[in-house]
Amino acid sequence: MEAMMTGMINNIFFIIFPIILYQMFATAGQRNFFVSHRTTMTVLFSISIILCMVFPYQFLTEDYIFDLRQVPMIVGALYGGPIVSAVLFIVSAVGRIAIGGDGMYIAILNQLLVAAGVPFLAPLYSRVNRWWKAVLVFSISILSLLFNMFAGYFIFGDPIHNLIGIWLMLMLNQGGITILTALLIEHLQKQEYLYNSLMRHEKMETVSHFAAAVSHELRNPLQSVKGFVQLLQVYEYPRAKQLEFQQTILDEIKAAEELIDDYLIYAKPVYGEMKHLEVEAELSHVIKIMSPYANARNVELLVKRGNSLSPILGDSQKFHQALVNIIRNSVEAMPDGGKLEIELETSGSSICVHIQDEGVGMTKEQVNRLGEPYFSNKSKGTGLGLMVTYSIVDQMSGEISVQSELGKGTRFTLEFPKLTK
C-alpha cells in the first residue's frame, strides 16, 4: 500500500508540476493555456506522459500496474485541440510500444480513440461552466477505462466480476485526478483573466485621469483667449489696451504650451542634451532661483552642500525643473512659514539630494499616491508637477523616496547613480 501511494503521488506530481512551472515562467498577459504557447505546454505534457509511463505503480494487487498518462492526454486534447492531441498520442504510443507487454495494443487503441474523439468535445467544453467541465472530464476518463476493461474481457478473457472493485477504484482515482487537473487550469486561467482585466482597467483609468487633467488645465487659458478675442471683435479699444489684451492672449497660449510640454515629458524620454552634471553647481543655481520665492512666504532655506564632485548623467534644464517642483511644493506646504533644509550627500556609488520641510505632512496613503496623474494635496492642484518630476528622475536612472508625517513635515530624497570620471 505504501508503494502504491508513493507511485500515485509521483504520477500526480508529474502532471501538476509542469502546469505550475508554466504558470510561473510564462510571460504575463500571455498565459492562456495552449493558445499563447501551445508548443511549450505540449512539450511539458509530453514529459508528464513519459514520466507517468516510466514510473507506474501497482494498484491494490501486485498483478495490476497502472499509471496516469491519460490525464494529460485528455486535458491536452480539450485545451489544445487536434494538433496537440495528435502529438500527445504519438508520444504515448511510442512510449507504450517501448514498454511492450500483453496489453500494448489495447492501450494504443484506447489512446488513439481518446486523441481522435476528445478534441471534438473541446467546443462544448469551452462553453460550459467549471462544474460541467468537471463532469465532462470525469466522464471521458470513465469511458476510457471502461473501454480498457471490456477490451481486456473480450480479448484476453479477463474476468470482469472478479476485478470490478479494482476497476471502480481505478475510475475514481483517474477521474478525480483528471478533475483536479482541469479545475487547476481553469483556476489559473480565471486568475489570468482577472489580471488582464485589472491591467486594462488601470490603463483606462490613467487615460481618463490624463484627459481630465488636460481638459481642466487647458480650458482656463483657452477661455481667457476666447474672451479677449471676443472683446476685441466687439469693442474698439485704444491701441495700448489692444496691446495689453494681445500680450495676455500670448501669455495664456504660452501657459497652454508649457502644459503640453509637461505631458510630453511624462510620456516620452527626456529631450535635450544628456550630459555630465555637477549636482552641487546645479543645486546652487536652483536655490538662487527659488530663494526669493521662499523669502516672500517667510520660509528660510538652509543648505548643506556637502562634498560632491562626482557628476551624474542628465539634462540640466529638466533636472532644474524637477528640483524646482519639489522645492515649490515644500514651500507651499508651510503656509505659516518655517525652515526648508536642503542637503547634498555623497555615498558609495550614488548622490542624494534631501529636501525636508516643516509643513503639514502627508498620510502613508497620500505618499504612496505621489506622482499619480491628477492626484494632488492642494485644492487647486492637478498633481502634474510631481508627475513630471517622477518621470524626469526615472529617465535619469534615479529614484525618489518620501518620508512624511502629518503635522511634522515631509522629506524628499532624490538618489542618482554617480558617474566615474
Describe this structure in words.
- This protein has about 425 residues and is an alpha+beta fold.
- It has three domains: about 1-200, Arp2/3 complex 21 kDa subunit ARPC3 (Orthogonal Bundle), CATH 1.10.1760; about 205-265, Signal transduction histidine kinase, dimerisation/phosphotransfer (DHp) domain (Helix Hairpins, Orthogonal Bundle), CATH 1.10.287.130; about 275-415, Heat Shock Protein 90, CATH 3.30.565.10.
- It is about 65% helix and about 10% strand.
- The strands form three sheets. Strands 4-6-7-9-8 form a five-stranded mixed β-sheet, covered by helices on one side. Strands 1-2 form a two-stranded antiparallel ribbon. The protein has a two-stranded antiparallel sheet with strand order 3-5.
- Helix 1 runs antiparallel to helix 2 and helix 9 (about 240-265) packs across helix 13.
Summarize, please.
This protein has 421 residues and is α+β, with helices and mostly antiparallel strands. It folds into 3 domains: 2-200, Arp2/3 complex 21 kDa subunit ARPC3 (Orthogonal Bundle), CATH 1.10.1760; 206-267, Orthogonal Bundle (Helix Hairpins), CATH 1.10.287.130; 275-417, 2-Layer Sandwich (Heat Shock Protein 90). Helices cover 65% and strands 12% of the residues.
